[in-house]
Amino acid sequence: MRNRHILCPTDFSETASHALSYAIEMANFYHVGIRLVHVVDQPIGNDNYQILAITPEELAQGMELAAAEKMQRLLNELNCELTVETVIRRGSAIEQILEDAEKNNVGMIVMASHGRTGLAHFLHTNVAEAVVNEAKCPVLVVK
C-alpha cells in the first residue's frame, strides 16, 4: 500500500467529492498518486426498435465526452501537488473499478457510498458494497 497509487472512483456527486478529499489526504500521507476513475454505463439499445434517434454507441460517446469535461473541471478545482491520473471507462461500474484496481495494482480504493437504505437500497445496485466484497486491496468507503 505504501508505494502504490490510490484508486478513487467518482460519479461527480458531492459524496464522491467528499471521498476524493479523503483520497487526497491518504495520498499525501503515503506520498503516492491518485488514479481518478469515472465509469460510463454502456447504453442498451437496438437499431431495429428505432426508439433512439442516435445509436447506443453515439450515446455512449456523448456520455464519455460529458464525463471528460466534468473530469477536467474537477482537476482544475484540485489544489494539490499530487500526481493525478484520470480515466474514463465504459461498462459496469463494479466490474470496471475492480478491473482497474487489479490491472494497475493499486494500494487502496477510496470511494463514496450514497448511504441508501430501505427500498432505494433494494432498487439500486450498491457499487461500494460489491467493491468492498470483491476487491483484493483495502477499500475505504466514505459517507
From TrEMBL:
Keyword Protein biosynthesis: no
Localization per record: Cytoplasm
Keywords linked to the UniProt accession: Cytoplasm
Superkingdom of origin: Bacteria
Predominant cellular place of this UniProt entry's protein: cytoplasm
SUPFAM superfamilies assigned to the protein according to its UniProt record, in alphabetical order: Adenine nucleotide alpha hydrolases-like
Keyword Cytoplasm: yes
Domain UspA: 3-143
Family membership noted in the UniProt record: Belongs to the universal stress protein A family.
Protein name, as recorded: Universal stress protein
Organism from which the protein derives: Shewanella eurypsychrophilus
